[in-house]
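Researcher: Sequence recovery benchmark, item below. Answer with residues only.
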């Protein structure tokens, strides 16, 4: 048995001696049990803290792992997107080259005859170096005297028996395109069958330059380089070429993240050759002889 002595204060003066010191006999087993319960309580609290800490740490580790996995997935998606974009771009340009080649390789007999007659005159003028009637310089495409050269070509084709004329298209501005005008040549064949009707061929002496763009991509420039400087083709063929090049110009500007001017769009380019125009047949200015 264990003796425990404790002092209990009492307000009653007469019982002070009796209550000043009093012995309480406690069972030793009950005290040990109480201490054990107290120790077990501390252990339980520690275990709960440890479990809470471990659970929190595990949750943080899992969150970090998930974040890393998500980041890696995003990098893979971006990489796959870049690869897909490159493949898509390559397929687009390859397809445009094939379409352009297929369109330009076709030619009717009338187109071929007009092309041959026009090339012969241009070659002759280049060799002779004749000065144009306005006195600007030699009658060539690169001299800048396009009007005089067009008159020469139109007259030559008429002399060869073709219905050729100088055409001037003019259009007003709209919500889609600005106003503009363009001058070119054409030749009309009325001898075709009644089923085919009248066949009109467009002649553009400096065709490639009409599609050249500043700061264009290498892919677009390669496509433009495949265009002939002298274009001779039916209206339907020219329309297909315009669609191919305007689609390529749009893709080029999108890839370079640049704004595409309205004068590069399909409607504007189509208005140059395929819109309403005036046909004029006039005699060429007199040549001023050879240049020195």
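Model:
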């Amino acid at each position: 048995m264990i003796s425990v002595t404790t002092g209990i204060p009492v307000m009653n003066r007469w019982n002070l001696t009796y209550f000043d010191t009093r012995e309480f006999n406690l069972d030793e087993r009950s005290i040990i049990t109480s201490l054990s319960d107290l120790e077990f309580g501390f252990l339980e609290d520690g275990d709960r803290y440890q479990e809470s800490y471990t659970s929190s740490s595990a949750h943080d580790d899992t969150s970090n792992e998930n974040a890393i996995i998500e980041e890696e997935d995003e990098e893979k998606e971006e990489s796959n997107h870049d690869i897909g974009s490159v493949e898509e771009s390559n397929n687009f340009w390859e397809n445009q080259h094939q379409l352009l080649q297929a369109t330009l390789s076709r030619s009717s007999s009338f187109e071929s005859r007009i092309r041959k007659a026009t090339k012969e005159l241009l070659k002759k003028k280049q060799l002779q170096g004749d000065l144009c009637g306005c006195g600007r310089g030699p009658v060539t495409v690169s001299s800048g005297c396009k009007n005089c050269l067009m008159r020469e070509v139109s007259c030559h084709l008429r002399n060869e028996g073709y219905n050729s004329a100088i055409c001037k298209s003019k259009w007003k501005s709209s919500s889609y395109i600005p106003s503009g005008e363009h001058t070119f040549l054409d030749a009309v064949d009325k001898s075709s069958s009644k089923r085919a009707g009248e066949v009109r061929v467009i002649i553009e002496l400096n065709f490639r330059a009409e599609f050249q763009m500043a700061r264009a991509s290498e892919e677009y420039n390669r496509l433009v380089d495949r265009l002939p400087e002298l274009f001779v083709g039916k209206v339907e063929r020219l329309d297909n070429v315009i669609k191919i090049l305007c689609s390529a110009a749009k893709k080029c500007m999108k890839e370079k993240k640049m704004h595409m001017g309205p004068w590069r769009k399909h409607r504007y380019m189509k208005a140059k050759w395929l819109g309403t125009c005036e046909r004029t047949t006039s005699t060429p200015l007199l040549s001023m002889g050879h240049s020195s």
